Amino acid sequence: MFFTVLERSLSLAQHNIGTLFKTGWAFILILVAINFAIGASLMPETGFRTVSYLTEPVQTVDQGALRALSSLLNLVIGFSIAIAYVRRILIDANDFPVVFGSRTLKVLINQIVLALIGILSLIPLLIVALLLAAVTGGLGLVLLFAAPFVALMVVQKFSVVLPAAAVDDPLTFRDSWRATRGLGWAMSFSALVMSLLAAVLIGLWALLLYISDGLLPGNLMWQQIRSAVFPMGTMLLSVWVFASLHATFYGLIRERFAARIGLREQDLAQVEESRQAVRDKARKALSGVRNLNRR
Predict the structure, then answer these.
(1) Taking a C-beta distance cutoff of 8 angstroms, is the pair 261, 86 a contact?
(2) Closest CA to 165 of 231, 82, 273, 223
(3) Which keywords does this Swiss-Prot/TrEMBL entry list (predicted)?
(4) Residue 86, pLDDT score
């Protein structure tokens, strides 16, 4: 199942690069304008020493506050691009180029809740791992390394609420957990691989911009442009990778959208088999408990 989810996510992303720009072009321009304005206000007389103003060392409290505001604006606009992208893929929506409303707020709130779920899942796992490490050594260390992955799996099982909110589907966190039964490990492995892909792409983007500085040495205007397009590109790459991944997750639990993301009937059958296997295991476990109670 892991290979199915990963393959369809990569294929969906590959075939919808143009969709990303068609649906997000207005937000992209806003991203560039915001980052250019903030970068210009933070740029020292000698120019930036790194790729962007966001990667520069913080010198004063005011600089830190302005960069925090910039990060927040980049995230909000990034989620707006992701919503437009997912809506075009799943329901062929043709929204106004710039839309910000209750739908965006719902997605943002869901993302905050997911982040809290991840933290609350990770903390007890780390505590248990450290206690076991103090007593058993090796077993505790294994759990210590496994804890982030387990927390990632928990978050991914709830994460289907993000594309659901984008297409106005009243899917709850409880529904997401139940609907992804039997898919947790496949989702978490896929999310891990896609995260590594996003990190590599962002690293290559930063390297490309850093190398380009050698073509225009000492050009302060180019430094301002480079500083602005780095966070814009980072946000676009993140949206492209993770929105494609979560759209695939959503297609797996909402079969009516499966054809739009390229899922085949055998893929859906495989998902149903995974869910049925989990249900059978649960029934056997429950039956065993009942038999023990009768004795």
Answers:
(1) no
(2) 82
(3) Membrane, Transmembrane, Transmembrane helix
(4) 95
